[in-house]
Amino acid sequence: MTVNMTKGQKISLSKADGGSLTAVRMGLGWQAAPRRGLFGSRTREIDLDASAVLFADKQPVDVVFFRHLTSDDGSVRHTGDNLVGGAGQGGDDESILVDLARVPVHVDQIVFTVNSFTGQTFAEVQNAFCRLVDETNGQELARYTLTGGGPYTAQIMAKVQRGAGGWSMTAIGAPANGRTFQDLIPAIVPEL
Amino acid sequence: MTAELVRGQNHPLPGNRLEIRVSAGTPLVAAVTLGDEQGRVAGDGGWLAHPGEPHLPGVEVPRQAATQHRLAVDLGAMPDGVHRVHVLLALPGGRPDAPADFGAMAAPQLAVTTPEGAEIAGFTITGLGAETALLAAELYRRQGAWKIRAVGQGYAGGLPALFADQGVPEPATVAGQIQYAVERERARSVAPPPPAPAPPQPGPRAGAAPAARAAGAGPGTDASSDTSTDTSVDGDTDASDNASAGIDYRHPRRRPTRAPAAAQHSRPDARADASATSAEPATLNGGPTPPPTVPGQAPPPQDPAGRPAPTGPPEPFAGDAAGWSMEERLHNQIWGMFEDLARTVAAYRSAEDFARSRYEQELDRLLADPRTRGGAAADAARDAAELKQVALVDQARAVLDRDLAQLTVEAEVVDPALPPAYAGWENPCWHAYQVPAEPPLAVRLGSLTLPEAPELRIPLLARMPLNRGLWIDSADDRRLALDTAVAIAARLLASHPAGAFAVHALDPAGSATQALAPLQASGALVLPTAAAGAAGVGEVLGRLTERVDLLQMAMRGGAADALPPGLDTAEHLLIVHEFPYAFDDRAVNQLRYLADEGPGAGVHLLLVADREDAAAYGPVLDPLWRSMLRLTPLPSDHLADPWVGHAWTYEPALVPPGSQVLTEVLRRLAAARPAYGP
User: Fold this and answer.
1) In this structure, what CATH number is given to the domain that contains residue B637?
2) What pLDDT does B116 receive?
3) Cβ-based contacts of B293 with chain A (< 8 Å)
4) How many alpha carbons lie under 13 Å from residue A120 in its C-beta half-sphere?
5) Which of B293, B343, B354 is nearest residue A106 as measured by Cβ atoms?
6) Does this model's pTM top 0.80?
7) Which of B161, B180, B221, B651 has the highest CB neighbour number within 10 Å of its CB?
């Protein structure tokens, strides 16, 4: 069951049987730019990037993105940068895996963002989506369709936060502009 | 000559008449299927030998489940259409004393012997978990000759799933027949067991059970049987659930569920050991179901059946990593432990840093505001801030302690399993040292520790061939630096087959004669000893440079066959003591050349030097120092890990004082040498 999230909606990640969520994966997928003309290399490639920013008490303490693929503590892992996109059939082209049980104790929020590194807005990218998956059973927790998202180059997608009873997830879905996560920090802070 | 096979490995068979011996800790059912070129069982019943129908042309299987089986196979008698013979093993279901799956018992062993009993190949089927049936091995025809391949493919769905995979018609019915035959045979051969306390027990043993199983065991009904095991996890076990406890219908890749309740109720004494072992594969398979519990609470207590909560960390075992051989698996496991320790400590340090910086910020904020700067409210606020810091650090410490405990347990399991090349000199495996037949994958250069866990020593393993020279810094303790170098050289020698590694030593001052004596006395120092004086330095360096030149030319030109016929293929290690004494400019240049180009041609450097001694050369030698891995004879925190960049304390692997192990090892090595010629 997919939850098509609306902005600001908060869902708890604790499961029906009472166990709380232990591992989530953020997936990002988009369709590669169509080949243009005879010379394939002149096609303007579309490069979207998924990032996860780890916050402790509203201060960024670590970030996982294409230049830092594993958080220092090893709990958040990016499976690798995809520079061109995929078939647009719904498969994830970039993934970030979060082992929530191993996240350091001071980290209380993890924010997931999407950026367009090559500068195309989401209006120009075909079949782009991002989603959050419960890694233990493959169930999709939240999905956003980025395509048609207007003249924005970034989205602050969702955050998972630590509470008294375990981790919960809040959908943010706030559009923003920026090339990498650094440009987004000012936009993220109000969402914390 | 016995070959110990690993999964996927094949081995030629010397003749057509064979005996396959199976031994396991608990009774197993053995069966054989004959397959065509695709491995499918094509015939109609004439292609499967099982306890109900034990005879086929060329093969016979036992009629009952047993801990030892001997299957006589005559490959020459096989029909022409048979290209593959599969040896299958399965757990007899529905027995109170039988383990629930292969993960709960010792690894079954398979041996192929000639009819006279001479062993040809062996295969220990390890790494099984929730499977209840097993394709153990395959004999197959390849260009007219038969070979054996170690398979070890388990099926959590039991025999029905295995048979379905092989194309046996009506797999569930056949599995039921086997079950029936085994139980019938059992009832005939031994006195019937005393009636079990649990009512479901007699059910599976009676004749009605196979039919029931056959009805519910087809591949198409996987989903329904899965839901029934799922409900048992939720705690409402009902009678129908217990009745189907005999065979495990779980899908191989489905998350493992609890062992059937009926089997557990009826074996209170066997419960402890079975649950201890079965807990491990359950968690290793990934995705254990956390039991119903309040999130964020302490680990839940054991459930009523006595099985430990699956949220606990998996029991570590040696070789728990990917790799083609045990050596490689251990190497990868040690690197995995290295990374885990680095990251765990990084998590702790960052939490601690954050707690401190937040405390300071809060204090600054208090002090910045005149209203909160003094008075009782200020004290209370300060105390609160401090408490917050301490609480966070305590929490981080608890997580760190948990992880360190797990890593310590793992280290305790791994340490005794290490081969000599990975083990410290104090490890007993050195006393059982035998000259290896293969060069090592890596050698231990010392151990690494972090201040958070001084007891947890991670072996520093360097992959062979060394792609960087080694530099033992003798600034602090010259004698110990030399001992370290000798210990490393001896280890490199001992880890290679006799004659595959050669050590040269440059000791122009003659001050290392005593320390090098063990290498010398054993004859391990193959090439001229401690070359004396500047002439000796030039001669040895010239020879090695020429060798590197030759090999490089041959490799670049693709003309390996043009190398001079006498050239030995050994790796070479050059120990340089008291660099740069007696080195002229030409010798220094040759040394730099060897440091840069030597590793590619199998010539490695081990420099024992104090950088200050070479200060006169100025920055010319900086690239040389940088290109080498600096090791210290005394513990020192100068090595950084590749993930987080902690400063790790390196401690060399030295021979314990008074121990004769190094001399003894070198003596054995020297004794092995003549066998290979001069």
Assistant:
1) 3.40.50.300
2) 77
3) 18-19
4) 22
5) B354
6) no
7) B161
